[in-house]
Amino acid sequence: MRAPVGGSRSSGRLSVRELERALARHRILLAAGLAAAAAAGLTAAAPPQEPRTLVLTAAQDLAAGKALLPEDLVAVAVPQALVPEGALRDTAAAVGRLAAGPVRRGEPLTDVRLLGAALLPTGGGGAAGRAGSEVAVPVRVAEPLVAALVQPGDRVDLLAASAEGGPAAAVVATAVRVLSVPAVRDDPGEGTLVVVSADRPTAARLAAAAVTSRLFVVVLPR
Fold first, then answer.
1. Whole-model pTM?
2. Under CATH, which number does the domain 52-117 receive?
3. Which of 150, 117, 149, 123 has its CA nearest to residue 136?
4. What share of the chain in percent tops pLDDT 70?
């Protein structure tokens, strides 16, 4: 007896269309498996991310003696291995302090790059720790054009000469550090105001010399 025509399903055979659908499903599953394996390989190969720390940097170039404002500061995440010693992290603690020297945009700010809001350095050990024996001394420098060359952070000698002339000028302060050159609008005949850091005996000599003499500044090499 002859088998009936069209009995392919009962004989266990697949039609051409069913075979194409099975192959398409197989390709999809294979592609998904390869993509998952590639993603797992990339994840395993990626190195662990290095821990970072937020530090304060200059938002723009800062001039020496600049009193810092909030807009002068920007917090940047820096790899811990690159964080400089004494890096500042607290914006509130930095605002109002003075740049001890010129600062470039993007430069991390540290404790030694700034002067305290009270002009004298703040901090623990080292030179900053010895600042308690020093005071900020405002002096009037007789030559405005020379005083215009002075910048915070400079070391200067201060000489006193009699206003009426006479003996040679006497040195009253040696290698004192300039803290600030305030932009004070007053009588230019009074001289340019310069604030220096000095010990108390030197401050007393400067005060006495200011009463009887004119003060002149000599800028020392850096």
1. 0.47
2. 3.90.1210.10
3. 117
4. 68
